[in-house]
Task: inverse folding
């Protein structure tokens, strides 16, 4: 009996089909969905109070302060301009970890929409990524302030270095988040696993320390950590005004890989979202 | 393929169906044992087995067609598969087997407060629902006043939806969908919440839809609205089509099967 059913399913899977004619969307509609969802997220997150900006910088700033106290004052780490290392590390890392960390809840948190309305669901993730990008951009002046206070000034390389790194990090974070958000619908404890992995990644990524302090023997291993070259490249750009093409290329490779992986997971699973949510 | 469907529905040969189901099967996997990665890995064989075998058949061999401008009612017991049917039409679900074809722009599944974000104001929710339905913000802005006026919720439109009563949610939900030029309107048991006057208003609106050629699919437990609104009705029992045709006959058979003989005189009076 069960055998005949499974054979039946295999045969008929070929003729299962849904065709929606007349439900096509144009570009303006896609753009507006993104815009309205983004507006919604920003509003819900900050409840429309002017404090929004402060919150987006308070977090990385506070963690930078904590690490400064712990490592420079209490443990007496001797790294010149350690505060700059911390600021450039934590702000960029925060952006990455915010996107990846909040991905688990992205689809689950929008359950009513996913259940009832047929729309391209990856827009939810795209919107979330844009949201965190905005927060990062708003925190750049703070990084700049610290740099200027320590005698470092913006370099001309920022003009092309920043957009490149932003594009790479955006793509990488979006890809990872899209894949995780999709899987999380089927395995709801993915969230915890992600938390643990992010914790590991935080210490294995040069956020709290510059790449130069890593023993030369281990330094090339850094390239196996997708986030490491990215954070290192950001720091090089911010502090030294230098675009490190090796780091940039490796990160771009990872970004492309994760983007393809994330979208293919999403494509395979997305039609089941409404069933499992 | 169109010729095939015309043959099977000889009495509807003049019009093309806007929604057509051909031998549609839908089952939901229960995902019973795979609540998480941990369970999945540590209980792998059982998880795999449950993934393959355990499923819930929500629809079995459902075939029907709905034509342009028709008001089509779907009735049946709880869990019979009515909402799954609407989900398939809305495009949020995919059939395991069979063909679902929809030839017009579908409204989202309209049920109480679905797609509404509690923290956003009524106005913002109208915009959100509109773009999700496929309209642009420009188009929505043109209709905003009309929507708010129809819903009669007054100043509440500028307050967050979480402070709304369930009737207000229903009002605004219906107004949005009704004013966003749907071509196929899916209504999942929503009219019962508004007060009598608003229900009447909705009914009137639905009748104007009918004149403008909007196709409506209505899932409801109110046999009165099936009789009053629908041109045809389908009764789903045990995940199959039990009966389809004249709404009064279908409702009568449905009520009889439920052990509650239908008293038409009483219902008509109540509905008016």
Result:
């Amino acid at each position: 009996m069960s055998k005949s059913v499974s054979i039946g399913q295999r045969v008929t899977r070929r003729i299962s089909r849904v065709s929606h004619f007349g439900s096509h969307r144009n570009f303006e509609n896609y753009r507006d969905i993104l815009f309205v969802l983004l507006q919604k997220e920003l509003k819900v997150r900050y409840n429309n109070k002017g404090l929004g900006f402060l919150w987006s910088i308070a977090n990385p700033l506070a963690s930078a302060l904590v690490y400064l106290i712990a490592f420079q004052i209490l443990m007496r780490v001797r790294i010149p301009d350690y505060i700059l290392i911390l600021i450039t590390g934590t702000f960029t890392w925060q952006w990455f970890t915010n996107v990846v960390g909040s991905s688990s809840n992205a689809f689950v948190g929008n359950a009513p929409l996913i259940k009832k309305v047929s729309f391209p669901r990856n827009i939810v993730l795209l919107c979330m990524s844009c949201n965190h990008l905005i927060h990062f951009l708003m925190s750049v002046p703070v990084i700049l302030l610290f740099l200027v206070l320590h005698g470092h000034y913006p370099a001309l390389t920022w003009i092309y270095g920043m957009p490149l790194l932003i594009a790479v990090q955006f793509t990488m974070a979006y890809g990872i988040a899209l894949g995780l958000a999709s899987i999380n619908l089927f395995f709801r404890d993915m969230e915890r696993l992600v938390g643990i992995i992010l914790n590991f990644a935080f210490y294995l990524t040069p956020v709290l320390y510059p790449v130069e302090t890593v023993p030369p023997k281990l330094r090339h291993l850094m390239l196996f950590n997708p986030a490491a070259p990215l954070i290192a490249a950001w720091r090089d750009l911010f502090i030294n005004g230098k675009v490190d093409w090796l780091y940039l290329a490796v990160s771009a490779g990872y970004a492309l890989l994760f983007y393809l992986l994330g979208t293919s997971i999403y494509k395979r699973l997305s039609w089941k979202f409404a069933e499992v949510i | 393929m169109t010729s095939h469907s015309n043959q099977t529905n000889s009495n509807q040969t003049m019009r093309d169906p806007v929604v057509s189901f051909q031998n549609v099967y839908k089952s939901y996997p229960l995902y019973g044992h795979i609540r998480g990665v941990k369970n999945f890995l540590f209980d792998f064989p059982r998880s795999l087995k449950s993934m393959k075998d355990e499923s819930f058949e929500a629809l079995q061999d459902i075939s029907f067609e709905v034509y342009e401008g028709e008001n089509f009612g779907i009735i049946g017991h709880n869990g019979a598969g009515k909402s799954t049917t609407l989900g398939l039409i809305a495009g949020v679900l995919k059939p395991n087997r069979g063909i679902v074809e929809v030839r017009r722009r579908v409204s989202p599944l309209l049920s109480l407060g679905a797609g509404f974000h509690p923290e956003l104001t009524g106005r913002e929710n109208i915009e959100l629902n509109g773009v999700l339905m496929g309209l642009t913000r420009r188009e929505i802005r043109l209709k905003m006043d009309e929507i708010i006026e129809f819903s009669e919720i007054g100043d509440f439109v500028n307050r967050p939806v979480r402070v709304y009563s369930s009737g207000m949610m229903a009002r605004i939900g219906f107004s949005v969908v009704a004013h966003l030029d749907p071509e196929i309107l899916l209504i999942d048991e929503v009219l019962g919440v508004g007060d009598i006057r608003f229900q009447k208003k909705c009914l009137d609106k639905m009748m104007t839809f009918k004149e403008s050629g909007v196709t409506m699919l209505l899932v409801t437990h109110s046999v009165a609205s099936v009789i009053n609104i629908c041109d045809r009705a389908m009764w789903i029992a045990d995940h199959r089509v039990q009966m389809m045709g004249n709404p009064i006959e279908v409702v009568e058979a449905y009520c009889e099967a439920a052990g509650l003989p239908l008293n038409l005189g009483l219902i008509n009076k109540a509905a008016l």
Remarks:
- Chain B touches chain A through 53 residues (CB under 8 Å).
- Residues 1-13 of chain B have pLDDT under 50 and may be disordered.
